[in-house]
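Project standup — Tuesday

K.O.: blocked on the structure for the chain from last sprint. Re-posting the sequence here as requested.
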Amino acid sequence: MSLWPELASGEFTMSYVNAGGIRTRCLETGSGKDTLILLHGSGGHLEAYTRNVFAHGKHFKVYAIDMIGHGFTGKPDRPYQIDDYMDHLLAFMDAKGIKAAHLSGESLGGWVAAWTAIKRPERVLKLQLNTAGGLTANPEVMDRLRTLSMNAVKSPDRDAVKKRLEWLMHDKSHVSEDLVDMRYSIYTQPGFVKAMENIMCLQVMDIRRKNMITDDMLRTIKAQTQIIWTDHDPTGAVEVGERFAANIPNAKLHVMQGCGHWPQFEDAPTFNRLSLDFLTR
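H.V.: unblocked you, prediction finished:
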């Protein structure tokens, strides 16, 4: 599951966009009428979607971006709350002239996508939430994520970076050496310790509670919605996915087997099929 052989199978551009003053890295592929934007999770980067961009690019104009503070995108020095991520996403859409797009987000990306569908429904076509955050505040999970993430950036240690990636996977063998290399190169950028502290603010209980999505908020979502969960997600049991589906009007839930927090990477054929069945229907 190496990154570059996967990317070598199709055509794409990698560029930087000025999104509201933030230099934003994005991968672009496809030429469909509608736009699909893929949003990664906490501490992640657009390479989370290397196994999905070309399958979706056959039907859509696809963008995978590094969100504010993440990857090689700009890192203003402030704690990143959900409004910050939404504002950055909307600034990216404005910079690209995108009035509305399908949003598919994993973990934090799902949280941001759902928040945008709630706060700015006119900017969202269909909504896909993949092991999304925002509904729960489990102190053990929050502490584990924060500890692994900070350990991975406080010292330039490939083993610590690998452990952070293995936390995402049910099958740890899916963590390839070039995936470790990519994240290592991101985590060892100058100033990334401070950036990770700003990213991890959502793992602080008082801040997280102010940003959480309520059931009542979910009930206001107008976009057609699909929930993808897994049987081994480390952030929450299937019941969390069921709660999303129960409260978002007419939402559908699919539970992928044998996957952890990155089903789009661990079982790309199944994820791509479920995603495209929904988005193209």
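K.O.: great, moving the ticket to review. The chain has 13 helices and eight strands. The CA atoms of residues 6 and 51 lie 6 Å apart.
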